[in-house]
Design brief:
The chain is 48% helix and 14% strand. It is α/β, with parallel strands linked by helices. It has a seven-stranded parallel β-sheet with strand order 3-2-1-4-5-6-7, sandwiched between helices.
């Protein structure tokens, strides 16, 4: 297999679990030295050790909370100090607040969601910028969501967050192109942590969730989502920037219905 990221350095936030786990493995398989970050430091270290043993590439895990500017900047500096520079930033880390109606979302829920997403992405990108500029270019891969396009029920704060990240992606693509820094976003639908847990806990969920998907299956984090990230991080996409790529088996074509089954209970406040 041609290793598309040989000699490259990448950061994958939220890189030890769900989609991030598959992305970390896919990038390492293509030769990248990977800094895997997440709030669960033990999990990041375990995945890094697994990658070193299986792929023979450099990998380090560290605890970093995207809601902390200090920790985000420290994350970027750690990659530079340990691996000698930075070529790719993959801002996968995200979180959902409790599934409640828009009118029941609190200011604190929105603030926390934006801190993890918009603010964390903003801090990480700005910290990465001088290092990518010094390398003569780089690639930022941010994460959007079909939820924002469909206005998914119970995810108002999350949808706002993802729209903000898309705006940041396009602004940075326009302004940083002069330094050969490419900035793109993907909207993946795959067996991430939340999706995988629902599949495990709810009988028939997988079949229902993929019924309108043209490819009739859920995306595998390593085999379906990871390769698109590798493409965007590699020279294969050297003329691609400012794009938002759906990596969802075509799910964005029919969209999906997100009306909660317990809407009446939510409205009554008994859910």
């Amino acid at each position: 297999m041609t290793r598309l990221l040989e000699g490259k350095v990448a950061i994958v936030t939220g890189g030890a679990k769900g989609l991030g786990y598959g992305i970390s493995r896919a990038m390492a398989a293509h030769g990248a030295a990977v800094l895997i970050t997440g709030r669960d430091g033990a999990a990041t270290g375990k995945v890094a050790a697994e990658i070193r043993a299986e792929f023979g590439t450099q990998a380090t895990g560290m605890s970093a909370d995207m809601r902390s500017k200090e920790q985000v900047e420290g994350m970027v500096q750690r990659a530079v100090d340990e691996f000698g520079g930075l070529d790719s930033l993959v801002t996968n880390a995200s979180q959902l607040s409790p599934n409640v109606l828009l009118e029941d979302k609190t200011d604190e829920m929105l603030a926390d969601t934006l801190a993890m997403g918009v603010w964390g992405t903003w801090w990480a990108m700005r910290a990465a910028y001088p290092h990518m500029k010094a390398r003569g270019g780089g690639s930022v891969i941010n994460f959007y969501s079909i939820d924002a396009d469909t206005g998914a029920w119970l995810h108002a704060d999350y949808n706002i967050n993802k729209m903000g990240i898309l705006g940041l992606t396009r602004s940075a693509a326009v302004e940083w192109g002069r330094h050969n820094i490419r900035v793109n976003a993907i909207a993946p639908t795959g067996l991430g942590q939340v999706f995988a847990q629902l599949v495990k806990d709810v009988p028939g969920f997988l079949e229902a969730a993929t019924a309108n998907n043209p490819l009739k299956r859920a995306g595998d984090p390593e085999k379906d989502i990871g390769p698109v990230v590798v493409f965007l991080a590699s020279e294969m996409s050297r003329f691609v920037t400012g794009e938002m790529i759906n990596v969802d088996g075509g799910q964005h074509l029919p969209g999906y219905v997100s009306v909660p089954h317990n809407l009446e209970e939510l409205e009554k406040g008994t859910a």
